[in-house]
Amino acid sequence: MQNERKRAVVLLSGGLDSATALAVAQREGYEPYALSFDYGQRHLFELEAARRVALAAHVRQQIVLSLDLRTFGGSALTADLAVPKDRAEAEMADGIPVTYVPARNTIFLSLALGWAESLGISDLFIGVNVLDYSGYPDCRPEYLSAFERMANLGTKAGVEGKSTWRIHAPLIQMTKAEIIRTGTVLGVDYSLTHSCYDPDSEGRPCGRCDSCRLRLKGFAEAGLTDPLDYSAAINR
Questions:
Q1: Residue 57 maps to a domain
Q2: Which terminus of the chain is more exposed, N or C, with fewer CB under 10 A?
Q3: Count of Cβ atoms closer than 10 Å to residue 55 Cβ
Q4: Cβ(62)–Cβ(51) under 8 Å?
Q5: What is the pLDDT confidence band of residue 28, given thresholds at 50, 70 and 90?
Q6: What is the Cα–Cα distance from 7 to 170, expressed in whole angstroms?
Q7: Cα–Cα distance, 124 to 110 (Å, whole number)
């Protein structure tokens, strides 16, 4: 048992950050179990990206859970609201944008926690960061610390002392450029990923939403070329 490889549940959206977090988990010696969500998001192409990333990373298992957050709405990603475009960095950093999905990371981490407890796993990985992001409150270190405390208080494994839950956010203090450099060193194929909030019918990125702009900025600052096809952005 002492030689058994440690395991972790990794939240895998199919985006740049989660693909890098998965690679970091593997670098740290974890055998990853990937959890992705079909939650009614308008950028559903990210799920195919998540499958590609999981396959390339040879994860032990990937589960795609379906839950329709469009029932609640309240976000440009789950309701018929316009996705903001062409926003300056200062504007992105000012307030919480309409692309925020109410309680999304809390919902996702809670389900990851349930799967992990059923597997006897006590480590969760999430690819959030606070330096290059669009103002989401559930991407902050204090939020993750609070969730970790809740996990240890509210699960059988935590209460009985069988496990001490750890929420790993290895990218939390990285810029997008640092994330991309890290992933590149670890062999992440970013052509497999999808980041755009408002892709066209073929899944090509708009190049103008906050997510695209932060991604493009990160590649530029890393001195690298984003491998995704932005040709559709010319006419949008």
A1: yes
A2: N
A3: 12
A4: yes
A5: very high
A6: 16
A7: 10
Beta sheet of 7-11, edge-to-edge order: 61-66, 31-38, 7-11, 123-125, 166-168
Among 214, 209, 144, 229, smallest CA distance to 178 is for 214
Beta-bridge mates of residue 9? 33, 124
62-100 pLDDT, tens digit per residue, is: 999 999 999 999 999 999 999 999 999 888 888 899 999
Residues in the chain: 236
The whole domain housing 113 covers 7-235
Alpha helices in the chain (DSSP H): 16-27, 45-57, 89-92, 104-119, 141-154, 156-159, 176-185, 210-222
Is residue 77 included in any domain, yes or no?
yes
Specify whether the CB–CB gap between 122 and 166 falls below 8 A: yes
Considering its fold, how many domains does the chain have in total? 1
Please check whether residue 2 lies inside any domain of the structure.
no
Q: What is the CATH number of the domain that holds 108?
A: 3.40.50.620
Q: What angle do CA 2, 35, 122 make, to 5 degrees?
A: 35
Q: Check whether 1 has a pLDDT greater than 70.
A: no
How many of the other CB atoms lie within 10 Å of CB of 82? Answer: 8
Contact, 54 vs 64, CB < 8 A? no
In a domain, 1, yes or no: no
Query: Average pLDDT for residues 206-229, to the nearest whole number?
Result: 96
